[in-house]
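Attaching the record inline, Q. Sequence:
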Amino acid sequence: MNLHHVVITGAAGAIGSAIARELRAVHPTAHLSLLDRDTAGMAALAAGLGNASTHGVDLRELETLPALIAELAATAPIDGLVNCAGIMRVQGLPSWDWEDAASLLAVDLLAPLRLQDLVVRGMVERGSGLILNIASMAGKVPLKGCAYYGASKAGLAMASEIARAELAPHGVQVLTVYPGPVHSALEQGARDGYGGGGLFARFAPTGDAAELARRITVAIAKDEPRVIYPRLYGVGWSATNLSSWIALSYGPPPVN
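Structure, as predicted:
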């Protein structure tokens, strides 16, 4: 698949920026529209990528997304969407403020689905396109302290898996990514939320964002349905019930 215009959310983060670099290597002439709240981080990334534009966006403001996508598509049709932006907060249910929970759900679930909705009809009309949704193994295996994060990622994963089946006959490729822990600010925040994580954090493997991005581009080239990384966490896919029992029985509780 030869991409010409790719929109990447969460582009300033560890995984988003790694995906942007990999896509640039594979698609050297594509225009990359980078979306994030971190404008400084995006500017530095765009300078290294070339042929990239930056757009300061708060994905919680769902009502602004149609105008944004229309503006981006006016320069060139969008044939690639990477939904990578995400918020992860590890916190016990009684300590949540609903406003914070609603913000997390908006960024992690509603915004990706809205963006997908805004680009999918054009992709179907043109008979080609790529949608890349970054879910999480926390959407397959329940983790204490991750009720809202797990719910949002489970919803995104299910929608993404269904979208792949529905859109494949129209030439639109959908790839769902299920990361386990990957070195990033988000992962460090989750680790802090567990007070370090105990034995689980000590022995559970943590992946590298650049390696995840490399595996994603390989999966795109092979038209694979999903990526699970680090590989050990594939047990959460193949033995979900057992993995869930272990996680809920022996996983660390949140410190708040």
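The chain has one domain: 5-250. The mean pLDDT is 94.

More tomorrow.
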